[in-house]
Each structure stands twice: as structure tokens, then as C-alpha cells.
């Protein structure tokens, strides 16, 4: 624990507090504060690089798409080839007859990763594109 701590107060709905208490108990946190500090670290890891687009980002991009949408496979593949310097690995899972899930492990400048995410989102047939950074 840090030598000095700062106290902040938080106003939220009873439902969120109830869910928080559930997580505190299930995950054996010592207190609500400990759980919220953990959540805050995750939130900051997800967003801090957005203010520094030149900073190196590591994480994964998860794409869910309908493989029967016209040209979707070609367009996704083409984007991935053009961004090959950012993509370390690709995992493809056939969810069902229609949906595919693709996970790209990525590393590169935040701005370039965000560009890739935006281009993937723009492909017709993608249902969800989500970036998780670590
Ligand atoms: Ni598939």
C-alpha cells in the first residue's frame, strides 16, 4: 500500500453499491476501497494512453462479425495485412453458423492501434469491436 493515501468520496446508486459489495465478498477484497482502487487501476490502464497517442500500447482487439456479410472476410483480412506490424497474433473461433470471433493481440503506438480499431468498426458485418489494453 502506498505510504500516503488520499480520501475521495463517491456518490452512486444503491444497486451499484449492492453489486460492489457482492464483488468485495466474492473476490475476498478487504474493503470497498480496495476493490474500487483495483477497478480504478483497470480503468486508468484502459484510458491513460488516449492522452498520449505516441505511447506504446499492448492489448487485444476482439471482433465479433457475421461471416456471411458481403466482403467482410476480405476486408478484415486486408486491414489486418496492412496493420501487420501492429498485430502479433490472430485467433479465430467459429461461434456458430453465422458469427465469428477474432482476437488480435496487438502492440504499437496508441494512435495507430486506435486507427486500426476504427477501421475494423467501419467494416460492414462487424457486430462488435472492442479494444482492451493492459
Ligand atoms: Ni469463423
Structure description:
The chain is α+β, with helices and mostly antiparallel strands. The chain has four helices and four strands. Strands 2-3-1-4 form a four-stranded antiparallel beta sheet. Helix 1 packs across helix 2 (32-47). It is globular. It starts with 13 loop residues before the first helix and ends with a strand. Nickel (II) ion is lined by residues 67, 92, 94, 100.
Task: Reconstruct the topology from this structure.
Elements: H1 14-26, H2 32-47, E1 56-66, H3 72-82, E2 87-94, E3 99-109, H4 110-121, E4 126-133
Antiparallel strand pairs: 1-3, 1-4, 2-3
Helix pairs in contact: 1-2
The structure holds nickel (II) ion.
The site of nickel (II) ion has 4 residues, from strand 2.
Structural class: alpha+beta
Give me the number of helical elements: 4
The radius of gyration computed from the alpha-carbon positions, rounded to a whole number of angstroms, is: 19 Å
> Which stretches of 5+ consecutive residues score pLDDT under 50?
none
Form type: globular
* Strand segment count: 4
End-to-end span in angstroms?
Answer: 21 Å
The spatial strand order of the largest sheet comes to 2-3-1-4
Output the keywords:
134 residues; alpha+beta; 4-stranded antiparallel beta sheet; binds nickel (II) ion
What's this, in brief?
With 134 residues, the chain is α+β, with helices and mostly antiparallel strands. It has helices at 14-26, 32-47, 72-82, 110-121, and strands at 56-66, 87-94, 99-109, 126-133. A four-stranded antiparallel sheet has the order 2-3-1-4.
